[in-house]
Specification:
31% helix; two-stranded antiparallel ribbon; 214 residues; alpha/beta; single chain; globular; 6 helices; Rossmann fold; 8-stranded mixed sheet; 12 strands
């Protein structure tokens, strides 16, 4: 697991603004800070990828350069994941993209529980590619696990990364146990989930703060 907040950086400033309930009133600023976190996480992930060395002709000569060896696919859980996806796409601008509609449904047996519903998924072929699954909040981890297994119908990626801005300790433990083959890239980890399975202190509902209440 990689954690941006483990060392002081500009990411801490962006996280502080994202959490601030007064600054959250500015939706443009909120979306931009989520996007910035995506750019930072994408850059860190890029350090672990495989590159090929090839010559590039400049106006004055030839330079030895590196380019990505494996194609990247960015998989985004809508709608909350869209600003974070934009940040990743700023860095991996040649990436293919997958989109998933997943949300918390009602449990008719126990009102304190919820089911992860998925009503939309589209993806390119994932075979042998680098898959990055993007969701700003990693709460229980159940939706991300379900999304990962659903995406496998489109092929088995060479490697899979999961990126989130804020995670709960429970969600991290859940994913590390259930899908240990996926590497986690996080902005920060908070210790608690409340009775409604929201991260505490967290930042609230990222989708509502970015786009308005449902």
């Amino acid at each position: 697991m990689f954690l941006l907040s483990q060392k002081p950086s500009i990411a801490d400033h962006f996280l502080a603004e994202l959490r601030d309930k007064n600054l959250q009133k500015d939706r443009l600023r909120f979306r931009r800070n989520i996007e910035r976190m995506g750019e930072l996480l994408a850059y860190e992930i890029s350090k672990t990828l495989t590159y090929r060395t090839e010559p590039v002709e400049t106006p004055l000569g030839t330079a030895s350069s590196r380019s990505l060896l494996q194609p990247v696919v960015l998989a985004t859980i809508m709608r909350a994941g869209l600003p974070l996806h934009h940040g990743f796409l700023n860095m991996f601008d040649h990436a293919d993209n997958a989109f998933i509609g997943a949300y918390r449904g009602h449990n008719i047996i126990n009102e304190d529980e919820f089911e992860v519903e998925m009503d939309y998924i589209t993806s390119p072929d994932l075979t042998g590619k680098t898959l990055i699954i993007i969701d700003p909040m990693l709460a229980t981890g159940r939706s991300l696990e379900k999304v990962y297994h659903a995406l496998l119908r489109f092929g088995i990626p060479a490697q899979t990364h999961i990126a989130a801005v804020i995670a709960s300790a429970d969600g991290v433990n859940f994913l590390q146990t259930r899908i240990p083959q996926c590497r986690l890239w996080l902005g920060a980890v908070d210790k608690e989930l409340n009775e409604h399975y929201y991260i505490v202190p967290g930042l609230g509902d990222a989708g509502d703060l970015a786009f308005g209440e449902k």
